[in-house]
Amino acid sequence: MFCQSYRIGWYEDNWYEVNLDNEGITCTVEQMRMAAEGHLTTEALMWNQNNQTTISGMTAEEFRLRLNHALIEEGYDINHDRYPEGYQEAPLAYDAVWSVALAFNKTTERLKRRNKSLKEFTYNDKDIADEIYAAMNSTQFLGVSGVVAFSSQGDRIALTQIEQMINGRYEKLGYYDTQLDNLTWLNMEQWIGGKVPQDRTIVRRVLRTVSLPLFVCMCTISCCGILVALTLIIFNIWHKHRR
Fold first, then answer.
1. CATH architecture of the domain with range 50-152
2. Cβ(176)–Cβ(51) under 8 Å?
3. Does domain 1-45+158-201 have CATH number 3.10.20.440?
4. Rounded distance, CA 74 to CA 67, Å?
5. Which of 9, 127, 182, 207 is least buried, going by the fewest C-beta atoms within 10 A?
6. Tell me: the pLDDT tens digits for 17-33?
7. What is the DSSP letter of 130?
């Protein structure tokens, strides 16, 4: 499915408007836009949302300005949104270099106590590899992409940005911090019809009762049937000697 979406070109913000004719899709762009309206999407946050000075001595905005200036010098027309591939991931790459540098610094200090050096590392040296892994796993700092930390599996722990398509544009609804288990909600969501759609099948337990007149009638008939049955049983027992 993902491969086919890539071939069609359905991976950009306006994915629902791309290659409709080439793929034989009979819906119009407006119909596709209406179908996509209101859907939610999540992605890892690439940029630090606070104007705080990071470990590099720059804020995220200062890093962005320096990056844009360097791209302009390289001939990219970023004023007309002509960005190179991987531009959005630049903060992650920048912070990744800082992560490696900090992890190596920690590893170097630990190895010195054991009279070892990083220069002695080989791919068969499990001791040094474990030290590098432990140092990387404990690395945490404020970078241009946000708070940089790693899970025990080595995955980057980052803020998750939640967006919703409103009037054909993606609007930010909030952010989720997996480390603190904290959700920052901006209350910007809009729902078609003004009602939140269901995310599951709702089961309601309803007690259904029989009307009182019908209940009394059925009880009376049942009691009469029981009395008749008892009468017949007694009659059969009383006259059992007769054939």
1. 3-Layer(aba) Sandwich (3.40)
2. no
3. no
4. 11
5. 207
6. 666 666 666 777 777 77
7. H
Could you tell me which of 127, 130, 129, 139 has the C-alpha nearest to residue 100?
Answer: 139
The whole-angstrom separation of Cα 228 and Cα 221 is: 11
**DSSP β-ladder status, 141-143 and 40-44:** unpaired
* pLDDT 10s digits, 28-47: 777 777 778 888 989 888 88
The answer to whether 1-45+158-201 and 50-152 have equal CATH topology is yes
- Report domain extents, the chain: 1-45+158-201, 50-152, 207-242
Tokens 């791919």 identify what position? 123
Contact status, residue 61 vs residue 176, Cβ threshold 8 Å: no
Token pair recorded at residue 30:
């407006």
Alpha helices in 1-40 (DSSP H): 2-8, 29-36
Task: Copy the structure tokens of residue 54.
Answer: 């990071």
* pTM for this entry: 0.61
